[in-house]
């Protein structure tokens, strides 16, 4: 079998995938998606330098670097072409498109009947200020495209909202506001591979953010049948092969699905639970090729 990885060469996740693949006799070089070259009318359909991707069995997508809208669309189009020609892209391009977009993800999850945070999205400054009040004057403002908790701020004062929203207006960003919910500085990450829950952890943040990249600590967690059902439905809805589903337990009871990570990290999960995500993922993929 042949495989390659689109990601950051030498990163923890790329190395772990390469080690797991090598143990199965598969060499998986890593390339940046910025170096993809596509052809129409003759082949190869997709390549990097002299390496054709047309004969791959698997292409693992571990990073889509920031870029212009045109560049991002081209990269995703190229991955979809490769998928249509028989290469298993992990995760599928459509699922990556959905999960990198917080608004689209929440809309799909809500349509599937899953509980999600109260959210208002707008491009208009005045509407954003009104949304701040409508959501109770205590909101979390997030970039629609973002990861690891970067760029997320909590706003509790109208004057602060005015200054932050004006800055976002100058940058021509979309306002993405969510009602802040008390959650004890904790959330739950449920990891799903191939329609099965393979592990979960509680992440406890130093502050209100519970992202591992922001210094949170992790402890093993055994999700009940309802959390497992929600996590599996979330992954089915966005179309991922493997994903991390982030669930917020509410102080007053109940919970909300806040995100599905289509290029998920698992370093914290592995440390807390011992779950071997790369090999479990490869077991699932190889079974599908058998």
Secondary-structure class: alpha+beta
Output the radius of gyration: 20 Å
CATH class of the largest domain: Alpha Beta
DSSP helix fraction:
25-40%
- What overall form do the CA principal axes indicate? globular
CATH superfamily of the largest domain: ATP-grasp fold, B domain
- Number-wise, the strands total 16
Please work out how many helical segments DSSP would assign.
Answer: 9
Mean pLDDT: 93
Measured between the Cα atoms of the first and last residue, the distance is: 11 Å
- Poorly predicted runs are none
Task: Please tell me the CATH architecture of the largest domain by its name.
Answer: 2-Layer Sandwich
GO molecular function, one term: metal ion binding
Organism: Dethiosulfatarculus sandiegensis
Keywords: ATP-binding, Metal-binding, Nucleotide-binding
Protein name: 30S ribosomal protein S6 modification protein
Polypeptide structure, described:
- The protein is an alpha+beta fold and 290 residues long.
- It folds into three domains: 3-90, Rossmann fold; 99-114 and 183-289, ATP-grasp fold, B domain (D-amino Acid Aminotransferase, Chain A, domain 1, 2-Layer Sandwich), CATH 3.30.470.20; 119-179, ATP-grasp fold, A domain (Dna Ligase, domain 1, 2-Layer Sandwich), CATH 3.30.1490.
- Helices cover 35% and strands 24% of the residues.
- It is built from nine helices and 16 strands.
- It has helices at residues 12-22, 69-84, 93-99, 102-111, 125-134, 158-170, 225-238, 267-273, 277-289; strands at 3-6, 30-31, 37-38, 46-48, 51-52, 58-61, 88-90, 119-122, 139-141, 153-155, 175-179, 186-193, 196-204, 217-220, 242-249, 255-261.
- The strands form four sheets. The chain has a five-stranded antiparallel β-sheet, sandwiched between helices.
- It is globular.
- 36% of the residues are buried.
């Amino acid at each position: 079998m042949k495989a390659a990885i689109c990601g950051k060469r030498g990163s923890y996740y790329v190395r772990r995938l390469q080690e797991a693949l090598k143990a199965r006799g598969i060499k998986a070089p890593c390339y940046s998606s910025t170096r993809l070259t596509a052809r129409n009318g003759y082949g190869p359909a997709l390549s990097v330098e002299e390496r054709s991707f047309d004969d791959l069995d698997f292409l693992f997508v571990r990073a889509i670097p920031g870029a212009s809208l045109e560049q991002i669309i081209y990269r995703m189009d190229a991955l979809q072409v490769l998928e249509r020609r028989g290469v298993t892209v992990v995760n599928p391009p459509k699922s990556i498109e959905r999960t990198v977009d917080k608004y689209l993800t929440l809309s799909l999850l809500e349509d599937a009947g899953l509980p999600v945070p109260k959210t208002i999205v707008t491009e208009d400054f005045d509407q954003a200020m009104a949304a701040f009040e409508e959501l109770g004057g205590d909101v979390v403002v997030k970039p629609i495209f973002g990861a690891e908790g970067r760029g997320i701020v909590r706003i509790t004062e109208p004057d602060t909202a005015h200054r932050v929203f004006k800055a976002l207006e100058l940058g021509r960003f979309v306002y993405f506001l969510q009602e802040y919910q008390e959650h004890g500085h904790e959330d739950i990450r449920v990891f799903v591979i191939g329609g099965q829950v393979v592990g979960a952890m509680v992440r406890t943040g130093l502050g209100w953010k519970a992202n591992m990249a922001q210094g949170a600590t992790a402890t093993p967690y055994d999700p009940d049948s309802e959390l497992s059902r929600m996590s599996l439905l979330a992954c089915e809805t966005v179309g991922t092969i493997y994903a991390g589903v982030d669930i917020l337990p509410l102080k007053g009871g109940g919970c909300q699905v806040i995100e599905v990570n289509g290029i998920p990290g698992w370093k914290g999960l592995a440390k807390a639970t011992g779950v071997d995500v790369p090999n479990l993922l490869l077991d699932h993929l190889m079974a599908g090729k058998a």
